[in-house]
UniProtKB/TrEMBL annotation:
Organism: Photobacterium ganghwense
Protein name from the UniProt record: Lipoprotein
């Protein structure tokens, strides 16, 4: 049975219309902690879902599948990043840098190091190792976007019930477990979908943040090479 306590925690962020991880968009986010939270959520959300109807169940099944795929990609990414610790650390620290700031950071990192230990060749090795993971992550991002639309349709079709349950959640939270009213199945299924959506979006973004920095590094190298030729 789906863990209602976990759903409740996720729904706070859903109702607020933001990521489930505070400070997610900043480079200062503790990625070790974030990775652990995502890993835990992957396990706790599991595969179970509330059955409602053929149409709603199909969306739930797809979300379970996307969750499994995204969690697998995240696991592969963690393993790969652990093997390339210097690059992973560099990308984490410099995720929100401007081009000029990133150039300075690269020069600072490279200072006094032999060629094989400099950041550019290490990034190239990291990129080769992560290309397959990034491709899967991009495909997942597209699938996530499509499912967000499906979930929005369910929310629209059952807006009254969802609004009613959301409005009474504060009251039911004050009630004892014995007194707590049973959640309407379609609302519980919707909450599960949104919880899974929060999880996969956060995991997908975490990987995309590094991909963006790698793309920026490659662009900088291209600009430097063009200037050298001119």
């Amino acid at each position: 049975m789906f863990k209602k306590t976990l759903v409740a925690g996720f729904m706070v962020s859903v109702l607020a219309g933001c990521s489930s991880i505070p400070g997610f968009e900043t480079a200062t986010v503790d990625r070790t902690k974030l990775n652990q939270e995502l890993k835990t959520n992957c396990k706790e959300l599991g595969k179970d879902f509330t059955k409602v109807s053929y149409a709603v169940d199909n969306v739930s099944k797809v979300m379970v599948s996307i969750q499994e795929r995204q969690c697998d990609v995240l696991s592969d990414y963690r393993t790969m990043a652990n093997k390339h610790g210097d690059v992973a650390g560099f990308l984490e620290v410099n995720a929100d840098k401007s081009d000029e700031e990133l150039r300075v950071a690269m020069d600072e990192f490279d200072k006094g190091k032999p060629q094989r230990k400099k950041i550019r060749p290490q990034v190239e090795a990291y990129k080769k190792a992560s290309d397959g993971i990034f491709r899967k992550n991009v495909k997942l991002a597209a699938d996530i976007a499509l499912q967000a639309g499906e979930i929005a349709l369910i929310a629209k079709d059952h807006a009254t019930l969802i609004a009613k349950e959301s409005g009474t959640s504060v009251i039911t939270n004050l009630m004892s477990a014995a007194e707590e009213a049973e959640v309407v199945p379609v609302v519980e299924a919707y909450n599960e979908m949104k919880a899974r959506m929060d999880l996969v979006v956060d995991a997908n973004k975490l990987i995309m943040m590094d991909k963006s920095t790698i793309d920026q590094l490659e662009k900088l190298d291209s600009v430097v090479a063009d200037k050298a030729r001119s």
